[in-house]
Amino acid sequence: MREICFVLLLSLIYGHIDPLSITLSGFSSGAFFATQYQFAYSASVSGVAIFAGGPYYCAQTQGTNAFLSCMYAINPVDMPALENYARRASEAADIDPLLNLQNHRVFMFSGIQDATVKSTVVRSLESMYRTFGVVNIESNFNLIAAHTFPTINYGNTCTFSFTPYISKCEYDGSGEALNTLYDNLKEPVPFIEDNLVGLDQSAFTEGRSTAALSLGPEAYLYIPTACKNPETVCKLHVVFHGCQQYKNAIGMQFVLGTGFNDWAEANDIFVLYPQAAASTSNPINPNGCWDWWGYLGPNYAIKSGYQMKTIFNMIQHVIATY
Questions:
Q1: What SS3 state is found at 199?
Q2: How far apart are CA 132 and CA 103, in angstroms?
Q3: Is position 69 annotated as part of the catalytic site?
């Protein structure tokens, strides 16, 4: 009864987005970042879908670790060190309590031919989840796919890994993810492009410029038709693109071509697409990746990380406003 009253109170405060419905997904750097955000803000997240991403704090603020251990698996991932860091961060309240993870749903994907983030790295994240008590895990490590986001019929050939890093694999990656994260979804329907709106990301950076945080000027929010009615109870899913998938690199292909909006239109799910951006100095991030190795400083993986706080503020805005 107490939990029901709490949910009702949150609904009255925040409007018609169910505050217990917030889930995340990401591809490549976006997958590492989604895991990062999931661990840091586990109290306000109910699940995550990981496409080609590795363990929390995998790079340990070292670019060499990012390449040699967390991507190409030349060196083994130091799982005890990562897990101990997470425990210390949780004890210090730099991230939410790790016990929250036990209630999360997780979907994981890694293509057999992914040479950029090896499947062994993704499997090490699965091991980390199980160490921290996550039991609701669905995964696919069997598709003959390169380093790419898999769709049914949009993008490159599935075994190719080049821009826009979205491929027609006869596999509905977004659908598999969302059906793991939510129950009883209806079949997707074509999304309505006019339902997509822009959000000024500078409104959420707490006075810093978006360029200083390697963020683009706008995020994008898909608002399902039914969710324009304030009496409709809706969900919220946040999707993080990978490196070289920000708007200035591939236009709106990640936002419009990955399939999330079709599922969202049919199932009353807001979809938020934050945008990173390329930066060649201060910070150095030439491929427009999310900060999962520390290019904005050592706090990148905890609540006080600049990009982490920005995303938290953006999510709170969407819940409170729409």
A1: strand
A2: 11
A3: no
Among 104, 147, 237, 241, which one carries the catalytic annotation? 147
Is residue 32 situated within a structural domain? yes
Candidate list 96, 104, 110, 114, residue with the active-site label: 114
**Is 147 labeled as catalytic in the residue annotation?**
yes
Q: Which domain holds residue 224?
A: 14-321
Neighbouring CB atoms inside 10 A of 197's CB total: 12
Q: Is 194 a catalytic residue?
A: no
Q: Using DSSP bridges, classify how beta strands 136-140 and 105-109 pair: parallel, antiparallel or unpaired.
A: parallel
Q: Is residue 7 part of a domain?
A: no
Predicted structure pTM score: 0.94
* Contact indicator for 148, 158 with CB cutoff of 8 Å: yes
Do strands 234-240 and 17-27 pair parallel, antiparallel, or not at all (unpaired)?
A: parallel
The tens-digit pLDDT sequence of the chain (322 residues) is: 333 343 344 444 335 899 999 999 999 999 999 999 999 999 999 999 999 999 999 999 999 999 999 999 999 999 999 999 999 999 999 999 999 999 999 999 999 999 999 999 999 999 999 999 999 999 999 999 999 999 999 999 999 999 999 999 999 999 999 999 999 999 999 999 999 999 999 999 999 999 999 999 999 999 999 999 989 999 999 999 999 999 999 999 999 999 999 999 999 999 999 999 999 999 999 999 999 999 999 999 999 999 999 999 999 999 999 9
Per the domain annotation, does 311 fall within a domain? yes
Residue 214, classed as helix, strand or coil, is coil
Number of domains in the chain: 1
- Give the helix, strand, coil percentages of the chain, each rounded to 5: 40, 20, 45
Among candidate residues 21, 25, 28, 46, the one labeled active-site is 28
- Is 8 domain-assigned? no
Q: Please give the Cα distance from 18 to 13 (Å, whole number).
A: 11
229 Cβ neighbours under 8 A, 6+ residues apart: none
